[in-house]
Amino acid sequence: MAINPINSIYSPPVRGSGVERAVSSNVATLRGKPVGEVDQVQLTPGSVSLRQLETESQTPPIDHAKVAALREAINNGTYQVDSERIARKMSDFESALFP
């Protein structure tokens, strides 16, 4: 049984159809224009909600003593994960995103 080389299966796209020339001339006319005139972006409702949460929330200051205590507990093997609290927080976060 003969094995066909991969190169014989692939056929490159046809060139010279005018598509490349149309695209390149269109790009030349768009240079120097503001992005708002060239392209429009639409955000999904989920991304809009995330952006609102990001702008509305203020980052609390870092409690360095608490971080040090957590690191020590993890290193000692005494840190215990509160899975119910994590699940509740995840649920609350999701409810805030998708009411």
UniProtKB/TrEMBL annotation:
Any Pfam family hit: FlgM
Domain Anti-sigma-28 factor FlgM C-terminal intervals: 39-91
InterPro entries: Anti-sigma-28_factor_FlgM_sf, FlgM, FlgM_C
SUPFAM superfamilies on file: Anti-sigma factor FlgM
Single Gene Ontology BP annotation: bacterial-type flagellum organization
Alphabetical keyword list: Bacterial flagellum biogenesis, Repressor, Transcription, Transcription regulation
Domain of life the protein comes from: Bacteria
Known role: Responsible for the coupling of flagellin expression to flagellar assembly by preventing expression of the flagellin genes when a component of the middle class of proteins is defective. It negatively regulates flagellar genes by inhibiting the activity of FliA by directly binding to FliA.
Family under the similarity heading: Belongs to the FlgM family.
Descriptive protein name: Negative regulator of flagellin synthesis
Source species of the chain: Candidatus Competibacter denitrificans Run_A_D11
